[in-house]
Design a protein that fits this description.
Elements (H helix, E strand, L loop, with lengths): L13 H21 L8 H28 L5 H20 L6 H31 L1
Length: 133
């Protein structure tokens, strides 16, 4: 399972790890929805997941950015730029016609979250761990 948490994903800051684990959980739910082949209408679930993803992401990004500010992390602007792009992308998905393109939208979100975890959480977030820890 792609969204299975592994110990080496930990950046060693308990609260951040907890939040990242929650994001993995949401990723797992998106994955479960993406692999369903029941031909049913999943519009409500897609909207629910998209909202959870967005709400939790906004909360998590704010939390990280506050920590970075507190510890004067030098790359904060670049990091924040990546956060803003992520939210922008989620907003963009929301404006699309989701109902008639459910499968495509779920796969897009899945693809996007997988990329984001590997490039941002396991890349950019790892860069700040030593400064903040
Ligand atoms: Fe993060
Ligand atoms: Fe981040």
């Amino acid at each position: 399972m792609i969204f299975k948490w592994k110990d080496n994903f930990s950046i060693g800051i308990e609260e951040i790890d907890k939040q990242h684990k929650r994001l993995f959980e949401i990723g797992g739910e998106i994955y479960n929805l993406a692999i369903l082949k029941d031909g049913q209408d999943h519009y409500d679930e897609i909207i629910r997941l998209l909202n959870s993803l967005k709400d939790y992401t906004v909360y998590h990004f704010g939390f990280e950015e506050n920590l970075m500010k507190k510890y004067n992390y030098e790359d904060i602007e670049k990091h924040k730029g990546q956060h803003d792009k992520f939210i922008e992308k989620l907003n963009e998905i929301e404006t699309q016609d989701i109902d008639s393109r459910q499968k495509k939208v779920v796969l897009d979100i899945l693809d996007f979250v997988i990329n984001w975890i590997s490039s941002h959480i396991l890349g950019s977030d790892f860069k700040y761990k030593d400064i903040i820890k």
